Protein backbone atom coordinates (compact mmCIF):
# COMPACT_ATOMS: atom_id res chain seq x y z
CA UNK A 1 0.00 0.00 0.00
CA UNK A 2 2.90 2.33 0.77
CA UNK A 3 4.34 1.96 -2.72
CA UNK A 4 1.01 2.72 -4.36
CA UNK A 5 0.76 6.26 -2.89
CA UNK A 6 4.09 7.43 -4.40
CA UNK A 7 3.09 5.73 -7.65
CA UNK A 8 -0.20 7.65 -7.66
CA UNK A 9 1.63 10.93 -6.99
CA UNK A 10 4.08 10.25 -9.84
CA UNK A 11 1.19 9.32 -12.13
CA UNK A 12 -0.68 12.53 -11.18
CA UNK A 13 2.42 14.64 -11.87
CA UNK A 14 2.94 12.95 -15.23
CA UNK A 15 -0.73 13.41 -16.19
CA UNK A 16 -0.62 17.06 -15.11
CA UNK A 17 2.51 17.67 -17.16
CA UNK A 18 1.00 15.91 -20.17
CA UNK A 19 -2.22 17.91 -19.82
CA UNK A 20 -0.28 21.19 -19.59
CA UNK A 21 1.88 20.22 -22.57
CA UNK A 22 -1.15 19.48 -24.75
CA UNK A 23 -3.54 22.21 -23.62
CA UNK A 24 -1.28 24.78 -21.98
CA UNK A 25 0.76 25.43 -25.09
CA UNK A 26 -2.31 26.66 -26.96
CA UNK A 27 -2.87 29.36 -24.35
CA UNK A 28 0.38 30.99 -25.42
CA UNK A 29 -1.41 32.07 -28.61
CA UNK A 30 -4.25 33.75 -26.75
CA UNK A 31 -2.33 36.97 -25.95
CA UNK A 32 -1.30 37.25 -29.59
CA UNK A 33 -4.92 36.79 -30.71
CA UNK A 34 -6.13 39.37 -28.19
CA UNK A 35 -3.46 41.79 -29.39
CA UNK A 36 -4.53 41.31 -33.02
CA UNK A 37 -8.16 41.98 -32.11
CA UNK A 38 -7.15 45.11 -30.20
CA UNK A 39 -5.14 46.39 -33.20
CA UNK A 40 -8.02 45.68 -35.54
CA UNK A 41 -10.49 47.48 -33.28
CA UNK A 42 -8.13 50.45 -32.94
CA UNK A 43 -7.74 50.62 -36.72
CA UNK A 44 -11.50 50.54 -37.21
CA UNK A 45 -11.95 53.30 -34.63
CA UNK A 46 -9.27 55.43 -36.31
CA UNK A 47 -10.88 54.94 -39.74
CA UNK A 48 -14.28 55.94 -38.33
CA UNK A 49 -12.80 58.98 -36.60
CA UNK A 50 -11.10 60.21 -39.79
CA UNK A 51 -14.25 59.64 -41.87
CA UNK A 52 -16.32 61.49 -39.28
CA UNK A 53 -13.89 64.41 -39.17
CA UNK A 54 -13.97 64.70 -42.96
CA UNK A 55 -17.78 64.48 -42.99
CA UNK A 56 -18.10 67.21 -40.36
CA UNK A 57 -16.09 69.66 -42.45
CA UNK A 58 -18.44 71.48 -44.86
CA UNK A 59 -15.91 71.63 -47.63
CA UNK A 60 -14.40 68.15 -47.30
CA UNK A 61 -17.77 66.45 -46.85
CA UNK A 62 -18.60 66.82 -50.54
CA UNK A 63 -15.54 64.89 -51.72
CA UNK A 64 -15.45 61.15 -52.29
CA UNK A 65 -12.49 60.23 -50.07
CA UNK A 66 -11.85 56.66 -48.97
CA UNK A 67 -10.03 56.00 -45.70
CA UNK A 68 -8.15 52.82 -44.80
CA UNK A 69 -6.12 52.19 -41.65
CA UNK A 70 -3.52 49.55 -40.84
CA UNK A 71 -1.54 49.67 -37.59
CA UNK A 72 -2.61 53.31 -37.16
CA UNK A 73 -1.20 54.24 -40.59
CA UNK A 74 -3.97 55.98 -42.51
CA UNK A 75 -4.26 55.95 -46.31
CA UNK A 76 -6.49 58.49 -48.09
CA UNK A 77 -7.59 57.81 -51.66
CA UNK A 78 -9.99 59.67 -53.91
CA UNK A 79 -10.36 62.89 -55.85
CA UNK A 80 -10.79 66.55 -54.96
CA UNK A 81 -11.21 69.62 -57.18
CA UNK A 82 -8.02 71.45 -56.06
CA UNK A 83 -4.65 70.98 -54.39
CA UNK A 84 -5.92 73.15 -51.54
CA UNK A 85 -8.70 70.64 -50.92
CA UNK A 86 -6.15 67.83 -50.80
CA UNK A 87 -4.18 69.76 -48.16
CA UNK A 88 -7.39 70.35 -46.21
CA UNK A 89 -8.29 66.64 -46.19
CA UNK A 90 -4.74 65.71 -45.19
CA UNK A 91 -4.74 68.28 -42.38
CA UNK A 92 -8.04 66.99 -41.05
CA UNK A 93 -6.80 63.39 -41.13
CA UNK A 94 -3.47 64.25 -39.45
CA UNK A 95 -5.31 66.07 -36.68
CA UNK A 96 -7.46 63.06 -35.87
CA UNK A 97 -6.68 61.08 -32.75
CA UNK A 98 -5.12 57.69 -33.44
CA UNK A 99 -3.33 58.66 -36.65
CA UNK A 100 0.41 57.97 -36.46
CA UNK A 101 1.27 58.40 -40.13
CA UNK A 102 -0.68 59.52 -43.16
CA UNK A 103 -0.24 58.39 -46.76
CA UNK A 104 -2.22 60.47 -49.21
CA UNK A 105 -3.10 59.13 -52.64
CA UNK A 106 -5.58 61.93 -53.27
CA UNK A 107 -5.51 63.50 -56.70
CA UNK A 108 -6.97 66.56 -58.34
CA UNK A 109 -9.91 66.07 -60.71
CA UNK A 110 -11.35 69.58 -61.29
CA UNK A 111 -13.65 68.59 -64.17
CA UNK A 112 -15.52 66.11 -62.02
CA UNK A 113 -16.51 68.83 -59.54
CA UNK A 114 -16.99 71.85 -61.83
CA UNK A 115 -20.59 70.99 -62.69
CA UNK A 116 -21.49 70.85 -59.01
CA UNK A 117 -19.87 74.17 -58.15
CA UNK A 118 -20.99 76.11 -61.23
CA UNK A 119 -24.61 75.02 -61.10
CA UNK A 120 -26.87 77.59 -59.40
CA UNK A 121 -28.98 74.74 -58.08
CA UNK A 122 -27.06 71.53 -57.50
CA UNK A 123 -30.22 69.65 -56.66
CA UNK A 124 -32.31 70.64 -59.68
CA UNK A 125 -31.83 67.27 -61.33
CA UNK A 126 -33.26 65.51 -58.28
CA UNK A 127 -36.65 67.17 -58.61
CA UNK A 128 -38.60 64.93 -60.87
CA UNK A 129 -42.21 66.03 -60.93
CA UNK A 130 -43.54 69.36 -62.25
CA UNK A 131 -45.28 69.87 -58.89
CA UNK A 132 -41.96 69.63 -57.04
CA UNK A 133 -40.38 72.11 -59.47
CA UNK A 134 -43.33 74.50 -58.99
CA UNK A 135 -43.00 74.26 -55.19
CA UNK A 136 -39.32 75.00 -55.52
CA UNK A 137 -39.98 78.17 -57.54
CA UNK A 138 -42.60 79.38 -55.04
CA UNK A 139 -40.29 78.72 -52.12
CA UNK A 140 -37.42 80.63 -53.77
CA UNK A 141 -39.66 83.62 -54.49
CA UNK A 142 -40.61 83.83 -50.81
CA UNK A 143 -44.07 82.35 -51.11
CA UNK A 144 -43.32 79.24 -49.07
CA UNK A 145 -44.83 75.86 -49.77
Task: Explain what this protein looks like in three dimensions.
The chain is of the alpha+beta class and 145 residues long. It has two domains: 105 residues, no CATH class; 26 residues, no CATH class. The protein has five helices and three strands. Strands 1-2-3 form a three-stranded mixed sheet. Helix 3 links the parallel strand 2 and strand 3. The longest helix has 27 residues. The protein is rod-shaped, with a radius of gyration of 31 Å. The relative contact order is 0.09. About 8% of the residues have low confidence.
Kindly provide the radius of gyration, computed on alpha-carbon positions and rounded to a whole number of angstroms.
Answer: 31 Å
Class computed from helices, strands and strand pairing: alpha+beta
Portion in helices:
55-70%
pLDDT below 50 for ≥5 consecutive residues: which ranges? 117-127
- Tell me the strand order in the biggest sheet: 1-2-3
Distance between the termini: 101 Å
* Domain module tally: 2
Amino acid sequence: MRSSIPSLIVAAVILTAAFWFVYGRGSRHIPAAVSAVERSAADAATTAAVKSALALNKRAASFDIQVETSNRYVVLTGETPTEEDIRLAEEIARGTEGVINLVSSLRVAPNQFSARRDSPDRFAGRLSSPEQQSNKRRFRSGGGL
